[in-house]
Amino acid sequence: MTTTMTASDTDRFVGVFDTFEQALPASGPESLRRQRRQAIERFSHLGFPTLRQEEWRFTNVGPIARTPFSLDVAVDGVTGSSIQAFSYEGTVQLTLVNGRFVPQLSDLDSLPEGIVVCSLGEALEKHPEKVEPHLGRLASFENHPFVALNTAFYGDGVFIWVPRNQVVEEPINLVLVGNPSGDPIAFFPRNLIVSGQSSQVTVVEQYVTVGEGAYLTAPVTEIIAEDNAVVDHYKLQRESTQAFHMATFQLQLGRDSNVSSHSISWGGGLVRNDVNAVLDGQGGEATLNGLYMVEGTQLVDNHMRVDHVAANCDSHELYKGILEGKGRSVFNGRIYVHPGAQKTDAKQTNRNLLISPDALCNSNPQLEIFADDVKCTHGSTVGQLDETAIFYLRSRGIGEEAARSLLTYAFAADIVERIKVGAVRRDLEEFLFRRLPKGDIVRQAV
Question: Do residues 97 and 246 both lie within one domain?
Answer without folding.
Answer: yes
